[in-house]
Every structure is written in structure tokens, then in C-alpha cells.
Write a structure and sequence with these properties.
The protein has two domains: about 110 residues, Rossmann fold (3-Layer(aba) Sandwich); about 80 residues, Winged helix-like DNA-binding domain superfamily/Winged helix DNA-binding domain (Arc Repressor Mutant, subunit A), CATH 1.10.10. β2 and β3 form a beta hairpin. The protein has a six-stranded mixed beta sheet with strand order 1-2-3-4-5-6, with helices on both faces. It has a three-stranded antiparallel beta sheet with strand order 7-9-8. About 40% of the residues lie in helices and about 20% in strands. The chain is elongated, with a radius of gyration of 27 Å. The chain is of the alpha+beta class. It has eight helices and nine strands.
């Protein structure tokens, strides 16, 4: 679909199947559907999600509580993720969402109405656990993900610093000396490629680990 007007026939057919009378370009609205004395339905058509689309849809809420966005159904993994995120946003804003498939069929992803998402206690606990695990405040809010210092990275850096100072060491001794209770598992998993097992239960630092210590020197023991 290359034009917004290509979305109109499938959307019109969708509402006509439900007994609505549908007309396009009524006032500022792209589509208006009316059924008897019920609240009119308003649909805003766009070829892709955008902030402008959401602004327009929110403005239509001053006219009717039944406002939908209609976009072509995206394809591909990244596009499907974007659809999921925008679907959540629609629900948060009380908007409906319609997607139009390549074969011309319109599908309702959600209807307008109030939305109260359930809080995730597990995610809240995970967030607070990571907060407590971080030493100091090593990250600037809004930093890009590849530059983020996590509690896990700080633990790995403390293990690396201990090995750099003491040479090959048993995991249990690293755990005590570096103050990282999970040192043995962390070094065995070797997520960053910083450690190598040189004997049973004994670990040493790799060249990548020494480089990591230099690169992240500011962050591993922040206070």
C-alpha cells in the first residue's frame, strides 16, 4: 500500500459488516462510521506509526470516545516488535488499533477503552536488585546500551582486578578476595571473554580481560 486512501476500502468494509454507515474525510476526520444513535466511530489513516498520528487520534477523543488508528500491518521481526509496542501505547491512551493486511483485510488489534496494565512484581524486584547491586552511580541516564555498566559487569571487573593483582587463583579465593560471591560461576560462564580456566577450579585473566580493566577502570568500584 502506497497511499493512505488504499486503507479506506478495507476499513470501510470492516465497519459496514458491523452495520455502520461509513464516510471518508468528514470534517477533520479521515473516516467516520455511524450506527443509529450510538457514539460515532472515528478512524485516522496513516501508512506508518508516528507521533503526528497519535496526536491526531488524541485530538479526535474530544469528539468521540471511539477513536481508532489504522495502518498497514507491518512485516518482519523488527516491525512486529514495533507493532506490539504501539499496540501497548494505543491501549494506554484509550485508542483502538486496526491493521490492514497485504491482501486487503482489516483486522482489529484492540478496541478503544480504559486500560489498567498489571504491575509485574518480578520485574520490580529485578529492578531493585540491580539497583542495590550497582556500586555508586557509574551510568549517565540516557546512555547508549553498549556503554551501560551493570552490576554483573562490576562483579566481573572486580574479579578481573583481583586476578590482575594476584595471578591465577582458585574461584573460591577470588570470591572472598574480590567480594563477589558468584565469582566461580561468573568466571566459568566467561560472558565477556575475560577469564580462562588454567587448572581445575583455577582461573586467570585473558588479554581481553586486561583490556576490559583499562576500558572500564572508572566504573568497577564506583562510590
Amino acid at each position: 500500500m502506497t497511499l493512505e486512501q488504499d486503507l479506506y476500502p478495507p476499513v470501510k468494509a470492516l465497519f459496514e459488516r458491523q452495520g455502520y454507515t461509513v464516510k471518508g474525510e468528514v470534517g477533520a476526520a479521515d473516516v467516520v462510521a455511524v450506527r443509529g444513535d450510538e457514539t460515532p466511530v472515528i478512524v485516522e489513516l496513516k501508512l506508518r506509526f508516528s507521533l503526528t498520528l497519535f496526536h491526531q487520534a488524541i485530538a479526535r477523543l474530544t469528539v468521540s470516545d471511539l477513536v481508532y488508528l489504522a495502518v498497514p500491518r507491518p512485516t518482519g521481526k523488527t516491525a512486529r516488535r514495533a507493532l506490539k509496542d504501539n499496540l501497548t501505547l494505543c491501549r494506554r491512551l484509550g485508542l483502538g488499533l486496526i491493521t490492514v493486511r497485504a491482501d486487503g483485510r482489516a483486522e482489529v488489534q484492540c478496541d478503544p477503552g480504559p486500560y489498567a496494565p498489571r504491575k509485574s512484581k518480578k520485574r520490580a524486584v529485578r529492578l531493585l536488585r540491580e539497583f542495590d547491586r550497582l556500586r555508586g552511580d557509574p551510568n549517565a541516564g540516557g546512555a547508549t546500551r553498549h556503554a551501560i555498566v551493570t552490576g554483573y559487569r562490576q562483579d566481573a571487573l572486580r574479579c578481573a582486578a583481583y586476578l590482575a593483582e594476584n595471578g591465577p587463583t582458585k574461584g573460591a579465593d577470588v570470591a572472598r578476595g574480590a567480594g563477589v560471591g558468584v565469582a566461580t560461576n561468573l568466571m566459568a560462564n566467561n560472558h565477556y571473554g575475560w577469564f580462562e580456566r588454567v587448572a581445575r577450579g583455577v582461573y586467570d585473566l585473558t588479554d581481553a580481560g586486561r583490556a576490559g580493566l583499562k576500558h572500564w577502570a572508572y566504573s568497577w568500584d564506583a562510590d
